[in-house]
Design a protein that fits this description.
The chain is of the alpha+beta class and about 300 residues long. Helices cover about 20% and strands about 35% of the residues. The protein has helices spanning about 1-20, 100-105, 250-260, 265-295; strands at about 30-35, 50, 55-60, 65-75, 85, 105-115, 120-130, 135-140, 145-155, 160-165, 175-180, 190, 195, 200-205, 220, 230-245. The strands form three sheets. Strands 1, 3, 4, 6, 11, 12, 13 and 16 form an eight-stranded antiparallel β-sheet that branches. A five-stranded antiparallel β-sheet has the order 7-8-9-10-14, with no helix packed on it. It has a three-stranded antiparallel β-sheet with strand order 2-5-15, with no helix packed on it. The two termini are about 30 Å apart.
């Protein structure tokens, strides 16, 4: 009975562990851009990117395909094509509502490989500061000093932002993620290579939540700041995704491991080994019982 009880607990533990690895994400997918020689949104929601400037496809994570941007800056009212970017303006899906994220929170994940961070890096944004066309929202990016960031602004420019204390390396593929649980006072987390990192929280005014009107999703460059300047990212992205809901640490770790082709965690292997050992013991015990019954039976041919 004791062995059966132990065996049962091992089965439950193993299935739970394997489920954590099999379920990469459990949030509601809003947009997913794999960049496998296309700018199409693979989520089915129709938020397809249109390239601005001349972004190009390059080798991505583990031999896949990513998208490369050349960086630089330009005037919002000048030629937007002078800075590489991807934008959903004109997509069949329109733009996701930022206001809906107030109730659910949001998450962004991506692989990033910066060449230069002079102008920082905009990974994904629905936020614009241009004086005549303001539309404050959220933005996930990397600051010029290499810190990962997630920023929120309401229509009155009250701000809620978080920055990592760790920095992103240049010329290296790094998995990054940012989550927000919908809290008006915080609830923001950042992850680098599947691990939650220490952050610093910054507040300005009393943040009232994300508000309309909505603006397109943009990646690779800002929508424009208060000086009407657009800043571009010099580097590459791969496997970019936007989620409704705050993904868990386990889900983000699983996404990193999937993209990095990392083996299952040691705990899963240990549980599997224990389970195999107990099955082996049980099988040997069954074989011995069968052999004893055969030899001691005085009526081997009687029904």
């Amino acid at each position: 009975m004791m062995k059966k009880t132990i065996l049962w607990h091992c089965v439950v533990a193993l299935l739970s562990s394997l489920s954590a690895h099999a379920t990469v994400e459990a949030g509601v997918l809003v947009g997913k851009w794999d960049f496998e020689n296309t700018y199409q949104d693979s989520s089915g929601n129709g938020y397809h990117f249109t390239p601005l400037g001349t972004p190009s496809f390059v080798q991505g994570v583990n031999g896949g395909v990513g998208v490369d941007f050349d960086g630089g800056s330009t005037d919002f009212f000048g030629d937007p094509g002078l800075v590489d970017a991807l934008d959903t303006n004109g997509s069949l899906g329109g733009h996701p509502s930022r206001v809906s994220f107030n109730a659910t929170g949001l998450s962004v994940m991506s692989w990033v490989n910066p060449d230069d961070l002079t102008f920082g890096a905009t990974l994904l944004s629905q936020d614009r500061s241009v004086q005549s066309a303001r539309s404050y929202g959220y933005s996930v990016g990397i600051a010029a000093d290499g810190r990962l960031s997630l920023g929120m602004r309401d229509s009155a420019d009250n701000r809620l932002s978080v920055f990592s204390t760790a920095t992103i390396d240049l010329n290296t593929w790094t998995h990054v993620a940012a989550t927000w649980d919908g809290s008006l006072t915080g609830g923001m987390k950042l992850y680098i290579n599947g691990v939650e990192v220490t952050t610093t929280l910054s507040k300005s005014g009393t943040f009232a939540g994300l508000q309309g009107p909505d603006v397109s999703i943009r990646s690779g460059a800002t929508h424009g700041d208060s000086a009407n300047t657009i800043y571009g990212f010099d580097g590459a992205l791969d496997n970019l995704s936007l989620w409704s809901g705050s993904l868990t640490a386990e889900e983000i770790s699983a996404d990193f491991r999937l993209g990095a082709h990392v083996a299952p965690e040691p705990m899963s292997l240990a549980i599997f080994g224990m389970l195999a050992y107990l099955f082996s013991l049980n099988r040997r015990r069954s074989n011995r019982t069968s052999q004893v019954s055969f030899h001691v039976s005085p009526y081997p041919n009687r029904n």
